Amino acid sequence: MRSYGQYCAAAKALDVIGDRWTLLIVRELLLRGPSRYTDLREGLPGIATNLLADRLRELEQEGLVSREDAPPPVATTLFSLTPRGEELRSVIEELVHWGLPFMVDEPEGEAFRLHWLGAPAELYLTDHAPKRPPITIELRTGDAPMVIETSDGVVRARPGEAEHPDAVVTGTPHLLAGLLTGMVELDDAVARGLRCEGDAEAVRRVLPREPARLHP
Amino acid sequence: MRSYGQYCAAAKALDVIGDRWTLLIVRELLLRGPSRYTDLREGLPGIATNLLADRLRELEQEGLVSREDAPPPVATTLFSLTPRGEELRSVIEELVHWGLPFMVDEPEGEAFRLHWLGAPAELYLTDHAPKRPPITIELRTGDAPMVIETSDGVVRARPGEAEHPDAVVTGTPHLLAGLLTGMVELDDAVARGLRCEGDAEAVRRVLPREPARLHP
DNA sequence: CAGCATCCGCTTTGATACTG
DNA sequence: CAGTATCAAAGCGGATGCTG
Fold first, then answer.
1. B88 to chain A: closest CA residue
2. Strand C closer than 7 Å to the CB of B77?
3. DSSP 8-state assignment for residue B212
């Protein structure tokens, strides 16, 4: 990207991460952890493959991403965030927070990947009973599943499936988004077609007690 | 801007504010308050005038900026942020915070406007004696001056000059940036060429007690 | 002068095809 | 799997011109 040429912290930040697709690549790496090129592409529907390659190279040069060849069993290249790249988490969080109102409209013809909801999940869910044994919830849409877990009172989200989930929640992207941000209550969501199998109380234990304020 | 077409809060946010220059225009409006077209251009060195016009129109359509014709004494158009636009403050703050390490290098051939330091100032300065009478500090570089004021223990920054400042601090952009972020102590800065006229204790009262952590 | 609109060359992006 | 290569389309930068 062409530099703004301004001695200003915001402009300098945008010099590095202001390019199209760059922050979404960071989002992927934040949500997925170390990832293969193909998985990144899968999580970035719409990106041209040459652009992904370009951006990864730039991010590597800026010291935000590192590339390592995984050892034999996997034998592939893994891209991951450096500590400096990890520091972009709060930028992404603010972006997600600001962009939340746009999730109120039902998606029309938009791409969706379930693990994208990991960002709002970690932002808005809290363990309301941190001293009780940890719980695991699996979310499903039809897409690859994702898991929400508590540990030490902290709620973590990751792509993948759970071994022995306390609950399995299945629904449309819109319903799941509404649920995780507290904009829709569990009962309402179920009434509108959400399926919640297993321990509903485990789900309630982490759901927001009031809707994510649209805005602080 | 072309939409990413992803049902994800971050992507949707970037659909709106991800265009080149857009966030810097928001920065200007946050730091200056309601502004004339010409003042915005002055604060955005490097922008092409047609782009500024385009972006302002887009921002208006998205409901982040409003345009009003100021009454006779001024008789010009004023652009300001709507509440929804104001909500981007935290996004800019995180961007400034993340971009701060880039300010450590002395600027070379980069444009500078003193009021840009208003963002780090409000982020890192605090009134360490909120119960004592409020103070006013004027900053100067050669550029248009800016003012840092305390009121109710909150530190505010704005472009302009002060009526009866408790102190006037003059120095290079690099020195002032170092000072406001706590990366350089007042004494060191003075030793390196900063001029501090008036009540140095007033300045110390708001300066960070420890350097802005590069990163939390 | 403030607030744009137009034109034009250059750069970036997007879509698709192809390769070690 | 992890990319290059190619080429058209869109976006941007810079200059300049117009209008109230």
1. A98
2. yes
3. P
Other Cβ atoms closer than 10 A to B83: 10
Residue B187 in contact with residue B193, Cβ under 8 Å?
A: no
d(CA A147, CA A138): 5
Neighbour count for residue B15 (Cβ, 10 Å) = 19
Nucleotide lying nearest to B54, CA to C1' measure = C4
Coil, strand or helix at A175: helix
Report pLDDT for B26: 98
With an 8 Å Cβ cutoff, is B20 touching chain A?
yes
A104 touches chain B (CB under 8 A): no
**DSSP type of residue A133:** P
Q: Is the CB of B164 under 7 A from strand C?
A: no
Instruction: Determine contact: B100 vs chain A, CB below 8 A.
Output: yes
Of residues A45, A56, A181, A199, the one with CA closest to residue A126: A181
CA angle, residues B43, B47, B53, in degrees to nearest 5: 95
Q: How far apart are CA A161 and CA B12, in angstroms?
A: 27
Minimum-distance nucleotide, CA of A18 to C1': C12
Q: What is the pTM of this model?
A: 0.96
| pLDDT, tens digit only, all 216 positions of chain A | 899 999 999 999 999 999 999 999 999 999 999 999 999 999 999 999 999 999 999 999 999 999 998 777 777 999 999 999 999 999 999 999 999 999 999 999 999 999 999 999 999 999 999 999 999 999 999 889 999 999 999 999 999 999 999 999 999 999 999 999 999 999 999 999 999 999 999 999 999 998 887 654
Q: Are the Cβ atoms of B112 and A4 closer than 8 angstroms?
A: no
Contact A4 B24 (CB under 8 A): yes
Using C1' positions and the CA of A79, the closest nucleotide is: D2
* Res B141 pLDDT > 90: yes
Distance A76 CA to C20 C1' (A): 15
Percent of chain B whose predicted confidence (pLDDT) is above 70: 97
A6–B45 CB contact, under 8 Å: yes
Condensed to tens digits (0 to 9), the pLDDT of residues A202-211 reads 999 999 998 8
Q: Using alpha carbons only, give the angle A12, B77, B72 rounded to the nearest 5 degrees.
A: 140
